Amino acid sequence: MTxxxxxxIGFGHCLPPKVLTNDDLANMVDTNDEWIRTRxxxxxxxxxxxxxxxxxxxxxxxxxAIKNAGISPEDVDLFILASVTPDNTTPSSATKIAxxxxxxxxxxxxxxxxxxxxxxxxxxxxxxMIRLGQIKTAVIAGAECVSKIIDWTxxxxxxxFGDGAGAAVLxxxxxxxxxxxxxxxDVCIHSDGSLFDVLKTNGGVSSTQTAGIVEMNGKxxxxxxxxxxxxxxxxxxxxxGISSEDIDWFVPHQANIRIIxxxxxxxxxxxxxxxxxxxxxxxxxxxxxxxxxxENMLSGRIKKGDLLVFCAMGAGFTWGGAVVxx
Length: 326
Ligand code: UT7
Hints:
The chain has helices spanning about 20-25, 35-40, 55-70, 95-100, 120-130, 155-160, 205-210, 220-240, 255-265, 280, 290-300; strands spanning about 5-15, 20, 45, 80, 110, 135-145, 165-175, 185-190, 200, 215, 250, 305-315, 320-325. With about 325 residues, it is an alpha/beta fold. The chain has 11 helices and 13 strands. The protein folds into 2 domains: about 5-175, Thiolase/Chalcone synthase (Peroxisomal Thiolase, Chain A, domain 1, 3-Layer(aba) Sandwich), CATH 3.40.47; about 185-325, 3-Layer(aba) Sandwich (Peroxisomal Thiolase, Chain A, domain 1). The longest helix is centred in the last third of the chain and has 23 residues, at about 220-240. Oxa(dethia)-CoA binds near residues 31, 155, 225, 253 and 259.
């Protein structure tokens, strides 16, 4: 039976020009390149300068995605930005970007806060609105300046994160309703608020009148991340009726190479099919998945027609997964 699918017709990205290496960090806190590389897989990350904001890098990523999709800003019917580091508490950074890029007045534009799972949350919402026939074209983005909510004297957290933005354009297209279709084939999103305290900022607007800085029980996050990322990927593959052998690329959230490898092993996905960018991006939170996909499209590894499974997990806890044929 035919159905409406959301086809991803363009990606875009933006990374702040400044690169911070492990050796740079070793000059700032009591750490070293060997510890960071072996415990996290990270070698360098991009960091936004003081004047560079989330809406600026997100706007550049969205502009590139729109250009690559071959559409114009007036074609956009919905814009969702996933971020925990907005420019202003209100209005949303999505409206700021919508204004800058010339999206039509009247379209829904809003931010969502789902930490590292934010891009998948946005994908779920946009895909549902497209499949319901409410809209034809959606733009979703994940963008963060995590560096601005980091305690740069805390070696437990400051070595882990990076800044960046990734965006995708989704457009309605008729499919056959099978796993051979192009587009978003399945998405799942979840949360467990009982783990709120494990990874959080130590303040916020209504509690401390500040944005707060990131605090984390790394070991606890690690343990849950391996389980939840695997579960989400398993769920969407099962719902789509595919197995790990069918997929071309597995794109897990990029937080720690040891998490990525553990999840790949649990799912029986050979490491050659696992996309890794954490080495040079660090953990870019909501931007991690679109950045990883697009960068590997640019290098020619990920191609049109490839079957992708991705999954992400972050503060909240929030997590989710998706199956997409490009
Ligand atoms: O998207 C979700 C966001 N977050 C994550 O996914 C993070 C998940 N967690 C992790 O990636 C890992 O737990 C970490 C990389 C954060 C930490 O790795 P670990 O193997 O769990 O190390 P640990 O916390 O057990 O720390 C081991 C030691 C400690 O020293 P002692 O107490 O054993 O003497 C730490 O103080 O390593 C020390 N340490 C460091 N040493 C050098 C912690 N951070 C550093 C550092 N450099 N940057």
